[in-house]
Amino acid sequence: MIPSRRFFALLILIGLVSLASPGKAEEPPSPADQAAVQQVITGQIQAFQSEDGEAAYSFAAPHIKQKFGSPSVFMKMVRDAYSPVYSPAAYDFGPAMQRDNQIVQEVVLTAPDGSQVLALYRLERMEDGSWKIGAVFLREMPDQLT
Length: 146
Description:
Layout: H1 5-20, H2 31-49, H3 53-58, H4 62-68, H5 71-81, H6 83-86, E1 90-99, E2 102-110, E3 116-125, E4 131-140
Antiparallel strand pairs: 1-2, 2-3, 3-4
């Protein structure tokens, strides 16, 4: 059996969850948590697409807000450093893994030119039970091995 790019993406996903919270095994999130996480990611992507900085910023975890200080600075950083996240032509959710109060959600982002990038979103559960985006890691899509 030849490993696929999904297999390698899943290995990256498991590694990120392991680094985020050592000591406890990773597991798939509950359907409710996965739906909530995907809704947060979708909300932020839609806010980027409509140039709504306040809305996009509202999905960020407190440490991200503290780091960037304002929606305008945050939007500039995303436009400059995370253009696949800022303006995807399409996106598809892949697997997710959870450890404690963090979920890493795989998202395949498709650019207007058809190229794809793998985004690994790390979301953190807040004290009120909501999910906020704490980090996004962009990776080239692993090629399928032949």
